[in-house]
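INFO batch 0412 | record 1 of 1 | parsing
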Amino acid sequence: MIQRSTRGWSRPYVPSEGVIAAWLRVYDNAIEHWDLYELAEKLVDLDHQFQLWRFSHMKTVERIIAYKRGTGGTSGVAYLAKALERRFFPELWTVRTSM
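INFO prediction complete | emitting tokens
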């Protein structure tokens, strides 16, 4: 059964210890859970590639407008630099520390 989130979307996401534990079981026995292991690795690849794009975008913006205000009233480069700290799948990155 799918459980709906009770978190308000205006609040920041907090990684789930239960999700971390589940992914750790997958990584601990990758052969038995091969499909999930491959999925996890593809998700990490996607996250990594998006981070590379974010970095490239930030450096391009820095080169073109330097530290002027960004589009939509953002702080420009500072906003993009802060975005580099964000991950799509934080549990998959956290589980690597636990292995």
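INFO post-check: DSSP finds four helices and no strands in the chain.
INFO record closed
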